[in-house]
Amino acid sequence: MSVEIRVPQLPESVADATLVAWRKQPGEAVARDENLADLETDKVVLEVPAPAAGILKELRVTAGTSVKSGELLAIFEAGAQAVAPAAAVATAAVAAAPAAAAVAGATKLGPAATRVASEAALSDAQVAAAAKGGRASKADLVAVASLPAAAAKAAAKPAAAAAPAARGARTEQRVPMTRLRQRIAERLVQAQSTQALLTTFNEVDLTAINEMRAKYKDGFEKRHGVKLGFMSFFVKAAIEGLKRYPVVNASVEGPDIVYHEYFDIGVAVSTERGLMVPVLRDADALDFAGVEKGIAGYATKAREGTIGLDDLTGGTFSITNGGVFGSLLSTPIVNNPQSAILGMHKTQQRPMVVDGQIVARPMMYLALSYDHRIIDGREAVQFLVIVKDCLEDPGRLLLGV
Fold this sequence. Notes:
CATH 2.40.50.100; seven-stranded mixed beta sheet; four-stranded antiparallel beta sheet; 34% helix
């Protein structure tokens, strides 16, 4: 029985989506609920599941096409058996995009990398050569796609050195922004154009946290099944600061200040598609294990492209950690319509004066970017002092002092 495969109903805030890649090709056997295609919106990647076991009969839309809710994508034959050998299936994939078939092989690609491979018409050999540990990132494929033809061909042969570009050659590669990247750009420009952004700084000595983690990390992981990281300490310390200074947890709506009496903390996660900020709901009600499990779960979903719109919606305050990439100091941009964001940075051993003695301590710079329309400098500075005190003496987090 033939079944029409259509674009799922998109959320009200999403006008359309882009068909990134077909995961199955005409004539290929498909199990019930198996993913047929990836649809990219400006927030998340959605999957198009098979309605039943059968075969994908005909593709009506090619990769890279913009589609709307309910639009016809393909014809599916429910209950049918595969009728084409692997070679024929690969040939039939021309309707989708040359690289889409290649990415379904042994080399693992995320949605963004799949799109680059498709648009640049990279061969399976080029994709495989770009892969590291069986997985090729968007950046890896953009680098291969940017090579001159001769060099790209050589790059696909692991045993041969890439041929140098012609002397004086000035090549360019135009790659469209992903929907997520476009949305990130819009929100960052919006934040800078609508908010009076300032940043205040402080530094924190992480000696006490390092000692606590070293003492309890094994028992914590054994009991809770998750590692005791730094982020749970920062989330709990930030919540303590937000309780003391509620305006940092507030937002502006027209002429009003909206004070949120709950703590939905966004934690920035870097993915191949760009930066995402999933939200820990009612984070004040979570213990350290709950925070760590929530963050780990979101990080996994973000990397696998399975994170949902609900995971990214809302939030009253955000935390971002540029230190994982080596950043020593930065001024993070507020995630509008929130009014503040806490920036973590690289931990570095620095000489500090403690009790009149110069000693090496693991120090981190903290940055709080805030909307000066509703948050005064005094409140921003004192918020950071609360965070600093809680991190340097973690017992405060347990005693609420």
